[in-house]
Amino acid sequence: MKKQAVEILAVVKQLMAGNRQIIAIFPGEHPQHPYMFYYLENGYVWYTSGGNQRSNQGTLEDFIAKMQAGRLRAKFVENGVVIDHPPRIITAGLQYDTIYDAATETGNEGYTVGRTEIWYGQDQFMREAGMGYDWLEKKGLRPNPKELGLTHVFLGRINESNPSNVFRMMQGEMWSPEGEARTMIRRKGLGHTSMSVGDIIRVGGKTLFVDRMGFKDITDTGKEFQAKYPEGAPDAQQKKVWREQAEKRRRHEGIRPRK
How much is the pTM? Predict the structure, then answer.
């Protein structure tokens, strides 16, 4: 064991001397090469058992994809030190499965599971929402807090409860600095990572519409909405489009459509 440790250290020093960034150490399949070293050079991942022989393993993205697929088992290296978790250069390229992964990536516990609901507007709705809540109300297109699923997509419930802090935290450069949320956002059929005018925060029993200036409390507009438009909003065709999109998304995500 001590001999292997000395041999590993020698290869690590050799690679680092050549300005190569070692990112992982894998068990080898040959007695003469008990360990394989993966390192990053000029945007590509290479592996070697030491010496002059090496093999190109593709881009860092390719390497990450193999790792996420469970095809690689490794001890990782960061700044020349062996660690049990993927180094920052790898985790920066990993894609989120849920909004809660941002807590691990950023170190901000505000992204952990809580009671503050985050709803992002669907693309069709967001094309109109950018004009602000008053404009939507005049056009009869404001969202119904009783049926947010028609116009919005639920991202999750986070721990942070201050609306202003939530808005800041949900900017792309804060919770997805390296594009980690890109796949999740696309999977949900959305087109924006940063919280914008038209998105919704539900916290403390209130439904808050992100407006052009601050937030608009629309908590009590559900009953008002139905009383004002008992047969549907004036722009019924627009509502029909939103409803069809919502049902399509539910089917895509394996959720039983509403009857």
Answer: 0.59
